[in-house]
Amino acid sequence: xxxxxxxxxxxxxxxxxxxxxxxxxxxxxxxxxxxxxxxxxxxxxxxxxxxxxxxxxxxxxxxxxxxxxxxxxxxxxxxxxxxxxxxxxxxxxxxxxxxxxxxxxxxxxxxxxxxxxxxxxxxxxxxxxxxxxxxxxxxxxxxxxxxxxxxxxxxxxxxxxxxxxxxxxxxxxxxxxxxxxxxxxxxxxx
Length: 190
Description:
Blueprint: H1 3-19, E1 36-41, H2 46-53, E2 61-66, H3 77-88, E3 93-99, H4 109-118, H5 123-131, H6 136-140, H7 146-158, E4 169-174, E5 181-185
Parallel strand pairs: 1-2, 1-3, 3-4
Antiparallel strand pairs: 4-5
């Protein structure tokens, strides 16, 4: 399937979706019914499994997805999204939900950099990033332990200087096959 057929398939489906008023069953507000914001992984297995395993329907939660469910920078877009959800969109709790068998687990930067080079990124570009103070190898590095990664993200959120002290931040790991949740950090106990 070519890239243009992927986009055309999406646009064709969307046209029918709108014409048939299929959107009506998803109507809700921008405020999360269950007052939570969830940071989770972009893994394809979680697209439908995670909401079902957490008993979430459309409109129930703000969901932020990135590789590994990681807060890698205290002033990056993930943390900004969490703060906006709390301060402007009526969320009252934060859940970090990573998963077992994550692609970020044990990921090394070198194979990613090799793939970049194969697709046209030059050594000159990589060197420019290095000279600019960006440690590309550190930036692309995965994690060794999913539970430690969840604890790290929970700590980054909980200890952020702009984070309200009364907001519980929970950490969980989901099984991408069964949907079973393992509690790593109970935000009510902090």
